[in-house]
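Open question from group meeting: does this chain pack into something compact, or does most of it stay loose? Before anyone orders reagents, we agreed to write out a predicted structure and look at it together. Recording both the input and the output here so the notebook holds the full record.
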Amino acid sequence: MAEPGRADESAHHAVPPVPSATPRMKLRYRVLSGGFSAAEQVLPRAWPDLSARAIERAAGVSMSASSRLGLERLAESLARETRLSLFGRVSVRYDLVRLARNAALIERMHEATPSISTTPVERPVFILGLPRSGTTFLHELLARDPDVMVPRVWQTISPAPRKRDFDPAASDVVRRTGRQLDTFAGLAPGFRDVHPIGPDSPQECSEITAQVFQSLRFDTTFRVPSYLAWLDKHGHDEAFAFHARFLQAMQHGVGARFWALKCPDHTFSLDAILRTYPDARFVIVHRDPVHVFASVAHLTEVLRRPFLRGIDPEEIGRQVTERWIEGADKLVDFDRRSDLPESQKIHVHYEQLTADPLATIARIYGHFGETLSDAAAEAMRARLAARPRGGYGRNRYRLADFGINADRLRPRFASYCEYFDVMPSAAG
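Structure tokens returned:
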């Protein structure tokens, strides 16, 4: 195994690494970027229309009242608080139309096959933790078990069940999704280093809840503070009601044992998760919070760069640290809940996970009464051997790049670290 302790400096996905862009591809991306920049000088700033009414009309669907409300709040925040480039506005419109159509597709799948709605999502496993704490690394390994379902990148773009004999290499939708990822990577230099995503990789649940426009995903990609404040107050019950319907549609005819689901943002929606899935199980991964913030801030900057003008790295630094100070406190409160039996949760430290991944996974399976098959363990070993560092590049950014001072930050995480026995490590 190559450098297991460096396996999760980032936030997403597995699958064989995508080759670097060729000189011809780089030229195409420069021409595309230049064309958008030129057009931006002559087109009105309000074009294209991102209002909820315009998106619903373009998608050709009738959205639910809760979806429409989320989209209205998001559109208002984008108009007031985000300086979108022309490429950003065109991309956002395309994305919003796609999301609205996907939600309608899920409902059509339920209507066409009523048994989808009557088959529950049983005992899903939710992986929790601060960003960049090893949750993606764990999710990727669990995805190697043929008896475990994980949402895939292509499934959140073009929803359809992934059968057990699915061959990504023979799938047109996987190839199409791969081309879309390549284009974005070409327009966002450094994206592959911090976000080595592939079309058949495990995907985060924020991409599912985005389809009803109630997702913390939008706050990562854009600057939408009023939307975030609205969503925190509104809650996530409606989003997770759709989340369950999405998983029901995706598990139909697959025959696996359970879902493994991952998203750091789950930390802020735990009440809604338990109301939706009272039998849910939780793996909480812990790592020194201060160590991860340069990586979190850098990823946020990379994701926003193709879409936004006037990005302020220090504002991003303040945003991610304040948010995850709150998140760390929520994890402590979650562990203290009296209504969640110990049998439904297990704690894992990053150092344990990366030092011996298979032993850690065997412990998780045993705690939840699951069996780690020989075939699953062998597939996980192959994944570890094939992906040194988990596919991530080396860190080339520091806390100071985002105005973050480790000495001032560390005391604010003291209660979290003391409660979960998290040891400090070197920060960037």
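Observations to bring back to the group:
The beta strands are 125-129, 148-149, 258-262, 281-286, 345-349.
The longest strand covers residues 281-286.
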